[in-house]
Structures are given as structure tokens and as C-alpha cells.
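Hi R.,

Here's the input for the iron/sulfur cluster complex you asked about:
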Amino acid sequence: MSDTATKDQKTTPAVEMVSLTIDGRPISVKKGATVLDACRQENIPVPTFCWHPKLRSVGACRMCYVEIEKFPKLMVSCATEAMNDMVVLTDSEKCREGRKAIIEFILLDHPLDCPTCDKGGECDLQDNAFEYGLSDDTRFAFRKARKIRDKNSTFDDLQIGPEMVRNQNRCILCYKCVRANEEAFGEYDIGAYQRGHNTEIDAAPGGQVASLYSGNLVEICPVGALTSSDWRYKIRVWNTQTVPSIDPYHADGANLTLWKDATKVHRATSRMNDDTDDGWISDIARYGYQIATSERRIKAPLVNKNGAMVEVSWEEALGVISRRFKEVKESQGAPCLAGVVSPNLDLKTLHAFNKLFRGALGSNNVDYRSDYSNLPTDADSTYGFMASRSFSIDAVASSDVIFVVGSNLIREHPNVHLKTRRAIFEKLSWLYTANPIVTKSADCSTDEMIYNLGTDEVFLNGVTLSLIQQGLADKEVDTGKIETLLIPNTLEKCAETCGVSVERINECAKRLANSKSPTLIAGELVSNSIARENIAKSFYNVALLLGIVQGKRGQAAVLAKAANSKGAEALGLFPEISATQTATLKNQFQSFPELAGANWDAMLSGAQGEDIKAMLIFGANPVQTGADYNHIKKSLESLDFLVVADLKETPTTALADVVLPLSSFAEYDGSFTNLEGRTQDFCAGMKRIGASLPGYEALNRIAQSLGFSLYADLSSLQDEVSELLDSYNAPERKHFLMESHFQAPPAPQENSLPLFAGDALHHFGHWTEMCHSLLEFNPEAALEISADLASRLDIQTGDSVRVLCDRGDKGNKGEKLILKALVSDILEGDTLLASHNFAAKPVNCFTSRDSRVSYVRIEKIEKQ
Amino acid sequence: MSDNKTQTQPIPGLPHVKSPGAPQVKTRILNAESVAEIQKKMARYPVRKSAVLPALTVAYRQVGYLNDEIYAELAAITEIPKLQLAEAATFYTMFPKKPRGKHLIMVCDNISCALCGADNLLRYLEQKLEIKVGETTKDNLFTLQIAECLAGCSAAPMMQVNHEYHENLTREKVDALIDGWRKEG
Amino acid sequence: MAEHKLLLAHTDDPQHKTVAGYVANGGYRAWRKVLTSMTRDEVITEVKASGLRGRGGAGFPTGLKWSFVPKDSPKPRYLVCNADESEPGTCKDRVLLECDPQAVIEGMAIAAFSIGSHLAFNYIRGEFDYPIEVFEKAVEDAYDNGHLGKNIYGTGYDLDVVTHTGGGAYICGEETALLQSLAGHRGMSQMKPPFPAVEGLYGCPTVVNNVETLAVVPHLINNGGEWYKTFGTEKSAGTKLFSLTGHINSPGNYELEMGTSLRYLIEEMGGGIPEGRKIKAIIPGGASCPFMTADQIDTPLDYEAIADAGSMLGSGACIILDERTDIVWATYKLIKFFKHESCGKCTPCREGTKWLTQLVERILNGEGEESDIDKIDNICHNILGRTICPLGDAAAMPVISVIQRFRQDFVDRIKAKDVLPMEQFSFN
Ligand SMILES: Cc1cc2nc3c(=O)[nH]c(=O)nc-3n(C[C@H](O)[C@H](O)[C@H](O)COP(=O)(O)O)c2cc1C
Ligand code: SF4
Ligand code: FES
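And here is the predicted structure with iron/sulfur cluster in place:
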């Protein structure tokens, strides 16, 4: 079977090299490289249209001709493998003549509308025509227009996606968009219709180009055939400058370029980095810069005066903050102060936050995990251990077996998702997905295992038991007492409980055990679960039995979610930090509190009791995105004093006494540590909006108003950050199987449907609501529902649906919201997904802090 | 026909395909026989996507043409993205994309047939049916179209009407055929 | 050298389509012999010895092609019979499918065995309703009689044959496009390498052969490769089907020994030109081959001689244009076909065929200029050898030859400045 095929690819010995001569220069390249690769390696210019570094060469445009000795014809360098002793000419008479003919052919039908074309200035056709094109007379005598199917839509621009405009006349049919969509993204929403000269590019029948990666298609279009409605006619490209930046949302750390002029940022594009992104970025990363320029930004500090929020100066706001913080600290003690920070803020801000609380205010109550509940309180939690495993995004692309559990991968990690697809398409790797819901990855999974809701660890225990039973477990692990460690403790019982058959579990286990470089990924469905620790233990067991934790092969991790979650972990922005971290921090801060801190859960209950009195929430918006709206709201309302810093007004700022305006990532220099632990810098692209300040500066001013200084200059702050990152060591532990006992969640009531609250496809957290382009994709909170359920309930996309909380006698019973239905072509079964990205619809009113699965009832609202 | 072994081997460039199974789909346009036939044909290929052409063929034979709604039904039956069905359908010329007359007359006008009078045959049909190439008669009986070579060259001129070849055409033969169909109604 | 009926020996026998009739005429002996007494290598050696060259157009040695399939590949392999016959002027494969389907099946089976394939496809063009029906029935019949299926003849060898029907695209006759189409994609040509024999259908080793090529195979096995070599010429062995069309008294498919002269085909088999008219031009191998002139009528019909005469044997479709034919009009008929059939992937073919069509059409409409002739020639040279697949060449070559050999016709036509009617020839 193909296992051998995959093995062959893996065991290629040291790289073989090939030597050839290009334009008289001796050149040596890796075997398998194309002549074009060789030219590019040596910076020898060769024009291309249809070639893309991350797509298979198809040799369609024929622009990249070179002359090769002994070959009678001109050869397309993008699809000709470099061979030993080849003699290549890239600029001979014959090449130039061949390329000129291609330009002539292309221009035959291409409108010469450069003045009104938005691609002007960055158009491959313009550049190549200038360099290689016609010198004098034109030989064309015919009308420049393609014939297009639908005559009415022909020559004008046609909106084919929420952010995409097509002009078919300009299309040179390089097929890059269609190829990228299929090869790299696995999406099927743009295609080529008709054939030959009449070929046209269009969205799927009756659909729109609206995948998460749609912006990339515009970016790789070599001409102005696909343009983005966001960027069109805003500014000519030669009037912009670029600065490097980083995806400020996802933990993948995709690299961006921001395009700016003197006043503001106008767009974001990719900046190819093979380690993280291969040059593909999600639309969220692409249009997410719009948080900088949004109308909804808060531009000045706000103070609650007699129930109304009033704009004030920083001095006045800081005066209130210092007075009240001092009051609380003096009357009730420093441990009554608590701080919550968003992991989407940069490293300097995170560190300054830590320093303010621990160093200046003397409270260990800091946390960055306000999206989660039931957090571990033990410094040595297995969850923490699995979440801090080292992980390489690029290694996913060369993994031979990928195993994803409890993750809606495309929504959590758009770039890791693409790397898994690359592994499948390029390496013929095997992908096993195990989730309680169907995800996009299912369409390329070898097996997509849907386990019963709330049985995550049972499924994993099944894999553990299967590995042991089949004799595939790492021999050095003691598997003797396995029956006493797990509940349920037989493979059959596990299979029955989780609803995935023994055969499928066995098959998956076998494939994992035979793998050379497995990648095991656990995601938000694990992190978000109240049984997180138990699931992590089961996950750990599987990784242990495969020898991954011991470092024998592959990688396994619970992936961090936000752009800087990993940074927050390394900087110690939570109470249960390790001894080494404590030591480094003690060294950096003049003083360090003795008393152990409260984590986010404890802060909330502390606020409802007498323990926490004042809180600073920085960039986070737990009222909207945390579990259990009412519980969090009630807790924050019980505080004596609440300060919230954010970019925009949120349900959390609505409860604040003082609101501070933060600058967005596009307005200052900073860095994020991505899920691999890779720290990457981003640069300011524009001036700060209004009176907003970058987090670290705002924090320093708070500190100053309290009589402290967090840093003398930014470099000293940066040095402390670097020291912490350098000294950070992921926890280690002895290798033995862990106990994982499953407790069945209570059965739902009749007619209740399980609901997950999380990110919509085109949103992340609470900020992207400010991005008008992303609102074009997902304009409002939606209730995603499977086609099957929709047809049973006679619900169609766009129908209004009343959602009612169904949680027995506890908590939020009776909560209701009206959401727009979105019939999903991916989901199956009865599970519902609700987007938590919209302040107007706090769907977390349905989620709970003490049950594994949230249930609701839904009713269609009949139109009047 | 016996079933093929389903291929468990991954194929480069294609997602690993799970066994196609027989999804229960509700169709409005395609009838049960068509659905069954598509499913039967699909089972003959090691890779599901190969069923694109057979599926389009079965659908167009039943309906007479293809459109977005039919692609959607085929997508549900075959689990092949609707996009790819539409892309393929428009690439090939055999599938009309609009309703057409009861008898679709395709006249080959390539070199061998043209040398034997195919263009005159076309003009003759235009006169007789009182339509131009590409049009359908008012009574919806005939649609006249040009075809590229149909491999009937040694019996030129020729035409294909619906699924049948009519070769070595003469005026008398054409008259007899058309009049016969007109009588049939 | 003259007519010799090997493939067309039983076209008049309706029973020959059935397994029973075919076996009565000596059918399936070869398949049984291969399965029971030959190894894969022996089959390939025999085919190599016969000197059989592909009848699909390119004339590539068949045995050699089979031997390119990697022996140690863990992937499944596939055999594909190319019955997409759509080259204007060609109608020979249709006859085989209709009259001798069992021979095609037997040939496919032997070829499949020789490359270790257990699944063979016959890609038949979708318009061939009747041939498809006949072939599918023949396959059914072969299964029922144990010539296909599981454990054939008790030897443990399994083979399935699947009929796949096209959707109307000439380009799907090109092997890489055919395999794309068979895999469910749009039928667009692919760059080679990788060659199908290494990475073909679904990325697995695949051999594509023409119907006629495969139909010859059982004869080679029965009588030996050396025997086949006794027909034809040194480098072009055996017999070949020729489709004779156009201005000819008896158009049809004729089987001649390779090397028989064109004159023999036209005069003896085709009964000459109607009403004793003179020949103006001959296209010897289908619409994609350069034109030959009347004085080349004594050229032998084999790959080398026709190439020496400046054309190609192609699929053996001989189209006769008599003295009444307007060459500009004929050029238009050819080029508009290629424009219509270009897959649209590579620039020179997609744009070039359109531009050529526009230019020739302009001349037809009496609006041409003399400079157009060189422009046409130059455009053809910008297409020739610059495309992914040979369709571009196929469009350019005949036009280049026309300009070379019938330039004066173009000049006259342009000077005359009158509109050339499409209806040049009437039917009866
Ligand atoms: C544009 C084009 C069209 C072709 N059409 C056909 C065809 O209709 N039938 C065929 O057998 N070969 C056709 N061929 C040749 C095939 O690509 C291929 O060479 C042939 O099927 C191989 O079979 P053979 O080796 O038996 O000749 C075509 C080639 C080109 C470039
Ligand atoms: S030569 Fe024509 S048919 Fe062949 S790949 Fe190029 S565009 Fe397609
Ligand atoms: S870049 Fe090489 S053919 Fe297009």
C-alpha cells in the first residue's frame, strides 16, 4: 500500500544537487528544481504570469520561455526540470521574440484601460509588456473584447464575491485563482467556465466567492481581472509605502504587509513566510487592519459621571483611576485588585500589565484567559503541559499522519488548516479528524470521526486502548495498569460511549502508530471544555504511547488560540506561574506579592463575594466572549470600580467606571509570539487614532499616576520581555500514563439542541465587528444549522430564529435571542453554532460554566 | 458489470475519498431512474469525481439540457462540488444549457462534410425550418445547430438528430426525415 | 502493396459483434494464450517485435510505450482505450467499435495484462450513441462469457472494463486531456513530463492507446510479431485503416498495407475523383496535417514517406480537395475547428487560433490585405512548437503549408476583394 510510497518520499537522503549553466553562469540547484527556480535563486529575471511559488506549475501562459541548448523548441522554464549540464539562455534573441509573441497574443484581447484599472502600477502585464512587449506598430485590427456567456454582464465590472470584483476582459486566463482555490485552499467557489477563447472565470453557480481565503485570489491575480472592493480606487499604489506586520488575531502569526500613505493604512497583503503561512492569509488577517480606521473607535477616555459616559482628558481619567485604586488598595488590600488582559495585545503591553499588577500594585491576580472557564489552578496541570508543547506549523506540511481532535481547525488556525491540506495534496498524508461537529477539514480527511457530544476523552481513551491492544504502544511506557486508569476501560465500551466504531478507532490508531512524523492537534473544543483537564490527560496518553512527548518523533499540542496567547504564557500573565518565571519576574520587578493570585474564575466569584473590589480589563471583552454572560456581567457589576481599555465600546466597557482608548496594532510597533513560540515584530502603519495609546503606554501612565514607573524607555521594557522569553521553559514531567475518568453529562431534555458559541467564519473575537469588509461576509450574529435540521424545521438561510436557553433550573433559564439562520453546507446533525462576535447578540448567554454541553430550543419566527 | 475494488490508496491532488455510499437525496427534477443510474455509474470508478461526465450525461438525457438547479441536484447525489459540475458542463459542447426543441439537429460543417455540401445542407434546413442556425422553431419541434466533426466523414454530409446519425444526406432524405418528424408532432 | 483486410475482415458479419460469433472467427484465442502461457514481458516483447506503431496519430511504438510503465510502482495502473475520434476526416475507430468491439476488448485486455492493470477504461466520444451501445453490450457479453471479470479462465487474473463517455471536446482525444476528463476535470492538456505511463490517471501509471492500435494486438499474439512485420514497410509495419473522404467517388474506410501508394487509395479504392476532375490538394492524415499537392499522389502511405513529402500520416484520414475548392475557404474550415476546440489553457493556441480565424474570415469577406498573408504565417510560427499539447501545432501546420503551397490563391482572393460564399458545394 501507499505507506511505502509515503515512506520513500520521507527517506530521501542528503539533498542531491544539479549543476547547470544559465547565461554563462555556473549554477547549482537542488535536484527537482525547475529552471525557473534556478534563475530565481540567482536573481536572473524571467517573466511569468501563471507561475506561483506555492502552486504546481502548469505552463499555461508560456511567458517564461528560455532557450536550452539541444532543445529545438523554446522551453517554459517554470515547468522544465533543471538537469545536469543544461546550458540555458534567458535573454537570447529567440527568447525575447517568443515572449514578445506571447505579450502580443495576450494584448490581442486585453483592453488597454490602464488609466482606469486599479491594478495599474502593480500589474504583471504592464511590467512584462513594457519589458518584453511590442516595440512599434500594433498588428491588431479587431475589437478588444472577450465574448462572454451572459451578454449583460460582460464588459463591466461584476461583483462576484463580498469583496471581489471581476472584469473578465482583463483576464489573461492564467488560472491562478482557480488553481489556488482548489490546490491550496480546497475551496470550490471560483471556477473557469466555457472553454478555449470563451473561457471565463466566475463564482460557483448561484454563489459568491466567499471562502475564508478569497482575498488571496485577488492578490495573486497578475492583472486587474480580480480586484478587491476594499482597495479599488482608494489610492494609486505608487503613492503608498509598505511596512511589515503580523496577523493580530490568530495564533498562527501569518505575516502581513501594510500599505499606507501619510494618513492611514489602506490595505493589508501577505508577506510570504514559509514557516508560518506560505504567502496565504485569511480574510480576517487581510481585512482586519480596518479596526484601525473604523468609525467605531473610541477616541478619548470616558468617565462615568452620574450614569453617563463623558469624554475626558487622559489626566482626568488617570486621576479617577489612581484615586480609586489607591482607595481600594488602602482600605481592602492589594489582593482586592485584579487585572485581565487580552492575549491579542503585544508583548510589551502584556509585560507592562504584569509589572503594573505584580510589581507596582502588589497583586498576583492577573489572567489572560477570560474566554475560558474552569481554569486549571495547579501549576502542573496536564492541560498546561500539553498546551506548552513545542509545535512547528511548517512541520505539519511534511507530517505523514495528522490527527486533529476537538478543533474547528479552519476557524481557529487558518494557516495550520492550509498546511494540513498541503500535506495531503503534496505528501499524500493521512488526516484523521475527530470532533463532535463536522468541520471543513472533513472534506479531505481520511476518516472524519464524529464522536458524541461531551465524550472527547472517551474517544481519546479508545485510541489509547487500541494502541495498547494492538501492541503498537511505545515499549518503554508502562501500560500495565491501564484498566484502573481509564473509565470506561475497554475499547468496546469507549467505542459505544463515544459513538465511533472500534474498527475506525483501530484504523486510526494503527495509522498513527506506523507514522514517522505524526502531528497531533487539539483545539478550542478541548480548551473551552470544562472537562479540559481530563481531555488533556487522555490526549497526553495518546501522545505518550506514540512516543511524541518523549521526543521520539512528531509533535503534539493543544494549540494556543490568540495572536499572543503563547506570549502571555511565556511572560507569566496568569497566577500559577512556574518557579523559574517567578524568579525572573521577582528579579525584574522591585517587589513581588507573596500571596498566590486568583485566576479568572476566582476573580469572578471573588467579585460576587468580598474578595475582589476593583478590576482593570485590558483589551478583553469577557461579557461578550466569555462563558456565561449573566454570571460575568453580575460579577463585574458587583465591583466597586472597573476600568476597561479597548478599541471600541463593548458590553464590557458598558459596565466600566472609566474607559480608556487603546491603539490598534496598526498604530504602534510591537511583537506577538505565535503558537509555535516564534516572536515576530509588527510596525506602525499610521498615527494613533484620537487620544488612543498603545497598551504599554497607557499602562505606564496608569502606573505613573500611582507613583510608579514601568519603564524608563521602551528598550528597557523590551529587554525585560526578551529576558523572560529567553528564560521560558515549557514544563517537563515524568512519563507515565495519566488517569482519565469520564462522567457522562446529563441527558438533554426532549427537543433541546446542543449549541456551541464561537467565531463566525469571517470573524475573530470582538474586534472584527469593526471591519466593514468582514461584515460583508458575515454581517451579523448567525445561527449556523445543518441542512438536514433546517429542512426538518423548515428554516432557510436568512430566516429569523428565536433561540431559548434550556438549562434546567440553573442560571440563564429563559434567556432568549433572535438570530438569523445560516444553513451550513458543512454541518451535519442537530448541533448549532452561534457566533459570539457581535456585541448586539451576546450568544454566551446560552453557555454555562458548569456543564459540558449547552442546550437550547429554537423556533422559527414566521414572517408577517 | 461486477464492482471494482474501491481504491483505498490516496491519489495525488485529490482528497482521500471515503466510500461514496448512497446518500438519500431528494430531487425535484431528476427522476429516480436517473439517480439510480448515476449512483450505479459512480460505483464503477475508483475515484468519485470521475462520475462528473456520466452524471451530466444521465441528467441531460433525462431533462434535455442542464442548468444550475440540475448541477445542484447532481452535486447532492455525487458529492462532487456544484462548481466542478458546472465547470465541466460548460467545457463540453454536448450538453445544451437551455431548453431546446424536441429534435436537436446538429449538422457537421467541418472540412470533409463541407466538401460534400454541408453548408448548403445547412441553408436548406434553415429554409425548410424557417429558422437560423442556433434557433428553435416556433412549434418547439426543431433546434438547428452546427457541430464540429462527428466522425461521419466518409458518409458526408451528415447530421446528428438527438442521438441518431443520419448520413449521406440528400434533399429527399432531409425532406423525408423532417416531414416525418413534423407528422409525429 | 495493396488492400489487406485484417481488421476489417469481418465487418460484414453481424454475428462477429457477439462473443459467440467472434470466437467462431478465432477470437479470444490470444487473450487465453496470454493469460495461460505468457508473462507480461513476453507480451511486450512480442508487440515490440511486431513494429506496431500507435494508430492515434503520433505513431509512437506501442510495445515501447507499454514498457515505460514502472514495474515496481505500488500504485494501481490503468489502461485507457482512446475512442474519442474527433479529428475531422477520421471515422475509422467508429467502424471498429461498431463492427468489431470484441477485438477492441480483447486488445484492451491484453494491453492491460501487459502493464499489470486490473481496470481498463474505454473513453468513447459522447456523440457516438450507437457505438457506445454496441460496445457496452459487447462488454456485458464478454463478462458473461468469462473473458472479463474475476479470475479469468481460472488464472486468478481480474480485469474490469468500464465504458466512459465523453462530452464533446476534440481536445479530449489528446491523452493528457483525456485523462483529466476521465478523472472528472475539465479536459485540459497537461505538461509532459510527467508522461501518463508514469503519472497518468489519478496520478497513477496509465497507458493510452488508440482503438485501432488495440484492435491489432490480438492478431500479433495469434500470429507473432514477426508475421505482422511481413506487411508494410521496414519502419511502418502492418496494415492501417484509411478514412477516405471529401471529393471522391467511393468514400469510406479502407485497410491497406503500409507503404501502399496514395494513388492506389484514391484511384483503386476510392474510384477516383467525381466526374474526372483534377485534384487540387490532399490532406493525408486528418485536419491537423499539412496539405499535399496533386503531384505528390505517388507518395507511399507510410509514416516516413509522408513525412518526407512534408506532411504527416496522422490518423490516416485522407481528405481529397478537387480543383473547384477554394483554398482560403478550406483553410477557414480547418482553422475555425481548431479555434472552437482549443482547450484555452495555453496562450498561443487560445489566442492564436482566434486571431487566425479572424484574419482568414476577413479575407473570405473580401476585406483582407496582402500583408495578412505574412501575418498569418508569422502567427502560425508563433504558435508552432510553443504550446502545451500538439493541438496548437495541429492548427498551425496545415495553415503554414497552405500559405507555402497555395500562396497565390490567397493573393488572388485578396485582390479580387469579393465575398466568398460559405456554400461552395451543394449536396444532391
Ligand atoms: C489534439 C489531439 C487530438 C487527438 N485525438 C485523438 C483521437 O481522437 N483518438 C486517438 O486515438 N488519438 C488522438 N490523439 C493522439 C493521442 O494523444 C495519443 O497519442 C494516442 O491516443 C495514443 O495512442 P496510440 O499510441 O495507440 O496512437 C490526439 C492528439 C492530439 C494532440
Ligand atoms: S495547445 Fe491548445 S488545446 Fe493544447 S493545451 Fe494549449 S490551449 Fe489547450
Ligand atoms: S510562468 Fe511558465 S508558463 Fe506561465
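One thing worth noting: The first strand of chain B starts at residue 103 and ends at 108.

Cheers,
M.
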